[in-house]
Design brief:
With about 70 residues, this protein is α+β, with helices and mostly antiparallel strands. It contains 2 helices and 2 strands. It has one domain.
Length: about 70
Amino acid sequence: MVRLGWAGSPQSIEVRFGTSQAGAVDVALHTTASVDAVPADHPKVDWEQPRAVEKGRRSPLAALRPDSAPAPA
């Protein structure tokens, strides 16, 4: 949903994982309000499909492109 521009990330934090050789990584923080608003903002999406995806399977949302994503009504 971030890639589609549907849920922005207003801020991020730097996180270090123990003694990782990779150092620190930035982790995006999303508000629950912005995530909760996505289905209402995009009513043309059949939200039952992504909710029914089994563990380890790719979401049908992954096939959408930002320019072909259903526009809000």
